Task: inverse folding
């Protein structure tokens, strides 16, 4: 059930600013996996000092990455960009192909795995399904680091990627009796259901995970957006264009009834031409966007409008993931 809390940020009654209701989605922003990944880099810097190398963006958010760079993190795309070193090497929250930790071990690099445990769970499922002799399908988006990492748990070509309903209609399995699927954790819940409906209609014996692979945080943020979008003249999703879960929130908002939904990275990106003469604006944030960006956007709206904030809460989250053993003492 959605709960609404009011916070009045309106200006002095004499102020001539037009009134605006800001519908603030909850949950929003950082999830447990993102929080853990950032904490791993920060604790590694505290314990071992700079530099700490990070393969790929630790999470898909420019401000987070820049803040960690300022503390001494060095971001690379591949391990061959890292010199022989005793410095820690962190794998991003999105997960990596199996060849990456194998390469790190060969080079005797001290590596810390910041892969979200919910992504690691999908990796385990892929291996188990393959070991059972099943052909494995991955529902996801080509080129996304999580998809690259998941497909990289098996030999090249062993995992087949399904991106769309059309892909699901066209796919021909080696053996329709020996087929399984997993999904990227940050997909649209509704779009994924449509793809699965096709696969299950065409291939009724396909085996799925015991529990939905789309993570709790992705599902919760999408439900919160569905609650605010029908009431909003515009929806602002704070996140990065390479953040899958943030882009899905924009899509969900549009499907839920707000055609004027858009992605913004920071308050500086607010498209005022699309935000004129509105009475209600919804605000949320992708799972890799820090809360201060949300508050900056609300403050930016307050410079133009007399704002009243309503918090629309559809779920509460209390998930916490353990840190790698090498850093648990530092956290304590």
Result:
């Amino acid at each position: 059930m959605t709960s609404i809390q009011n916070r009045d940020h309106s200006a002095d009654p004499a102020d001539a600013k037009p009134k605006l209701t800001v519908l603030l989605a909850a949950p929003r922003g950082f999830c447990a996996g993102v929080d853990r990944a950032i904490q791993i880099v920060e604790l590694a810097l505290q314990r071992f000092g700079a530099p700490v190398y990070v393969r790929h963006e630790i999470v898909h958010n420019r401000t987070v990455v820049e803040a960690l760079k300022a503390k001494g993190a060095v971001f690379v795309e591949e391990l061959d960009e890292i010199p022989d070193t005793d410095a820690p090497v962190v794998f991003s929250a999105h997960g990596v192909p199996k060849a990456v930790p194998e390469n790190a071990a060969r080079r005797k690099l001290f590596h810390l795995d910041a892969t979200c445990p919910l992504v690691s769970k999908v990796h385990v499922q892929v291996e188990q399904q393959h070991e059972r002799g099943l052909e494995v399908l991955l529902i996801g988006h080509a080129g996304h680091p999580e998809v690259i990492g998941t497909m990289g748990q098996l030999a090249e070509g062993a995992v087949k990627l399904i991106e769309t309903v059309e892909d699901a209609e066209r796919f021909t399995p080696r053996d329709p009796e020996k087929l399984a699927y997993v999904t990227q954790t940050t997909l649209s819940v509704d779009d994924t259901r449509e793809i699965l409906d096709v696969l299950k209609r065409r291939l009724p014996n396909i085996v799925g995970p015991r529990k939905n692979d789309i993570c709790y945080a992705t599902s919760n943020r999408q439900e919160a957006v569905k609650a605010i979008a029908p009431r909003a003249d515009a929806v602002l999703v704070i996140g990065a264009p390479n953040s899958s879960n943030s882009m899905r929130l924009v899509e969900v908002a549009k499907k839920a009834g707000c055609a004027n939904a858009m992605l913004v990275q920071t308050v500086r990106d607010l498209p005022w031409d699309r935000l004129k003469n509105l009475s209600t604006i919804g605000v949320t944030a992708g799972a890799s966007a820090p809360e201060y960006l949300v508050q900056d956007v609300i403050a930016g709206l307050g410079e133009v409008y007399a704002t009243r904030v309503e918090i629309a809460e559809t779920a509460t989250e209390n998930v916490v993931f353990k840190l790698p053993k090498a850093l648990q003492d530092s956290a304590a």
Summary: Confidence is low (pLDDT under 50) at residues 1-5. Residues 3-30+216-313 form a domain with the Cobalt-precorrin-4 Transmethylase; domain 1 fold (CATH 3.40.1010.20). The chain has eleven helices and 13 strands. Residues 17 and 228 are 23 Å apart (CA to CA).
